[in-house]
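Today's session is about reading a structure prediction critically. Students often jump straight to the picture, but the first step is always the sequence itself: look for stretches that repeat, for charged clusters, for runs of hydrophobic residues. Only then move on to the predicted structure, which in these notes is written as discrete structure tokens rather than atom positions. Here is the chain we will use throughout the hour.
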Amino acid sequence: MTPRRALSWLIASGAVAAASPVWCDSPPYDTSDPSIATRPELTAMVGLSHDEAGRFANLVLEFSVPLNIRAELDISPSLASAQRGGARHAGLGDTEVSVRVLAFEESGDRPALAVEPSVVLPTGRRLTGLGEGLVQEAISLIASKGLGPYRVTAQVGYAHSGGDDFAPVSLLVERSIGARWRFGAEVASEQPLRRRCARRSQVDFGAAFEVRDGLTLHAVVGRNLDGDHAAFGRLALTVEL
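Below is the predicted structure for this chain, in token form.
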């Protein structure tokens, strides 16, 4: 399975430190992949972000376990480091748990379709900028279709974070070059639903290289388009166990 998500990795893009809502996916893109892992996988991702207020870094370990041929469990604990002004804090970040269920496999003109509920557990301390300090729930609908060397994946969902409700929306276009390389471009946004909160959008570009069967290296660089305009980068390594 191709790793996907991280925006809403507030953590990976520095949003935790900025205290904005989150909905999580898996590295290194925000947009999830509807496919189900055939074997257990471990993805290690390092995320760095920088804005006018300071710097944020984290290490996320995502454990992916196939429950059956149509369902997968992902558990993603994290370690984080936040520097704001002269203060620096490091420790345990928030933890995401999600289950992805494949409703339809891709066939003919029909795209693959999956549903992914998730919850973010407040294992990081909010006062130090390492976590949100509250439970966050989300559910996403993911559709993906291959078009020759291209793959287009769209995701839309609903996320609840404290007193805020958001609609996370993202679009990822990837192109395969040869048997080992994939390049992608993605736009993602959080649209406020309940209160007049700041919208958060980002654009990023990435690449993936299959080192060998069962071992893939991923990299993404991007920038937030709203709010702090933070620049961020993510580097991930996925191993099939």
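Discussion point for the tutorial: The CA atoms of residues 75 and 97 lie 5 Å apart.
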